[in-house]
Amino acid sequence: MKLRWRALLGGVLLLTGILLAGCSSEPAETVTKPPVEEPDDQGQTITINPPLTPKVGDPNAKYVVQTRIADFHLIDNTKGFVWGVTRNELRLYYTHDGGNTWNNISPSENVQFQDKLGYGKDISFTDSRHGWVVRQNLDKTATVILRTADGGQSWDISALPSGEHVSAIQYVNPSTGWIMASTNLNEQDQQKLLYHTTDGGATWKKVAQSSGMSSNESSSGLPDQGSMAGMSFDGNKQGFVAINLDSKVKLYKTSNQGKTWTPVASKMQGCPQAEAEAPQSFKGNSSSYWIPVLCYLDSGTKYSGLFTDDAGMQWNNVSLGLTSKRNSVIPGRTFLNDKEGWIVTPTGVKRTMDGGKTWTTLTGSKVLPSKLEDYPRSVKLRFASSTVGWLLLERLDDKKSLLLKTTDGGANWRIL
What we know:
Elements: H1 16-20, E1 44-49, E2 63-67, E3 71-74, E4 80-86, E5 89-95, E6 102-104, E7 123-125, E8 131-135, E9 143-148, E10 156-160, E11 165-171, E12 177-184, E13 190-197, E14 205-209, E15 227-233, E16 239-245, E17 248-254, E18 262-264, E19 274-276, E20 280-281, E21 289-297, E22 300-308, E23 316-324, E24 333-335, E25 341-345, E26 348-352, E27 360-362, H2 367-374, E28 377-383, E29 389-394, E30 401-406, E31 414-415
Parallel strand pairs: 1-6
Antiparallel strand pairs: 1-2, 3-4, 4-5, 5-6, 7-8, 8-9, 9-10, 11-12, 12-13, 13-14, 15-16, 16-17, 17-18, 19-21, 20-21, 21-22, 22-23, 24-25, 25-26, 26-27, 28-29, 29-30, 30-31
């Protein structure tokens, strides 16, 4: 794979030294021995297509690697991405055949990462060719945004001011996107800064910020108080943010591409302590989302959700009718639309077809229950359709993960 780096902003000149070493590399030779990660990073074993097009019948046409998958993104039934950080290098892979084989589209190893990356926070894709990756600020250096328009064959860079930490990123098309960044004011408060791009991320313009003074709000309407749970926009200037503040979920909406924000009512009756997770979009609808919410009670944790079909202008609070013990592992939850959803239990998967009012246990899978014993934490659960879904599991005591796939709506699962 040949990587080409083109620094377009003066703000990234300080990175030139570390990037020049990885600006260009000749296509890798066909690998004859399976490269294996260090033992403490082993996880999924996946089949990687080599960077060179092999001749027909070449015994080295494919090779396998082991890597710890930290997150994934599904585009449709056959296309998706997985990634993880190993020895401070981002390992990013793409599949076009439902996970049978993968292409390595990782950026240069000279761009170092410290933390695992989450979709919607550090990574965003609009399709199989256009993607963006955030390298958070390190040692007072700038926050770097890597972008590709050719499916990872080449990557360009831009930057945000040093000291700012990105908490959310989203693109609505290959040219238009937003980044929410923050700087710490004290232990509880963060100044929030919203950036907007209309040229695919080559340049960024600050369009709103909170006051930078705790207990006050700026004219933008964004509060300094609270931490960002997530952000989403549609293609019609509308968007929302979810903020966790004082054991409550606070929602703010915008109708002018993020320039000004107003609070939105989100009454959650019977929930004295609530915490929002990152918003999830519904497939095929740029204005419909749901936010998973944890409601902490003395008796345990109750699961609910906030649903919108107008990009956050109005919200409907729905109890999912499911609870767990207070100290139990938080399950993966997802909805394909406002009616059809899934949740992972300690023994398998449940499905709803009525928006969470009733749930049906899906039986028949012999693989999933046994894997849940070894990998009890459900990192992420997503469905591309009513039949095809991916589930990422993780062990709590080491650095191992496992990615599974279903093609029958969650009844049966196999390891990818």
